Amino acid sequence: MSRDTLTLSPRQRRARLTGYLGWLGLIALQPIWHAWLAPDPHEPLSAVLILALLPLLLPLLAIRRPARALLWAGIVALFYFSHGVAEAWSLPNERMLALAQVALSLLLIFALGAGVQRRRKA
């Protein structure tokens, strides 16, 4: 466990765990959606998966600093939120998958907000 993790309050630990669950959920959803439940027959599967997964995997470069990795995952999740809203609006057959992406993105983003600790004035 890193020193950063040891100084977290229980609320911050729960928020961080919730953020990780949202991030992992987004990572798991992409192959389920694009390769199994609703593959696009006009696009190569490998290209779709690379485009869908690569942004979610980039925050792993900062995993030594969990707070920073989660922050970057939250920033990336804004794109997935927007994509999910657009897909839910335009593709009725994929609406439930898109709404799942929106929900996971919001889970991650709200977890980041819940984990913020205000500093007390001296």
Notes on the structure:
By secondary structure, this protein is mainly alpha-helical. The protein has one domain. Helix content is 74%, strand content 0%. It is built from five helices and no strands. α2 packs antiparallel against α3 and α2 runs antiparallel to α5 (95-114). It is elongated and about 60 Å long. The model has no long low-confidence stretch (mean pLDDT 92). Pfam families: DUF2069. It comes from Oleiagrimonas citrea. Keywords: Membrane, Transmembrane, Transmembrane helix.
* Beginning-to-end CA distance, first to last residue: 30 Å
Strand segment count: 0
Proportion of strand residues: under 5%
Question: Could you state the order of secondary-structure elements as H and E?
Answer: HHHHH
Which class of secondary structure composition applies to the elements?
mainly alpha
- Segments where pLDDT lies below 50 for 5+ residues? none
**What number is the mean pLDDT?**
92
Note the overall shape.
Answer: elongated
Number of separate domains: 1
Number of helices: 5
Largest sheet: none
Helix content: over 70%
Radius of gyration: 16 Å
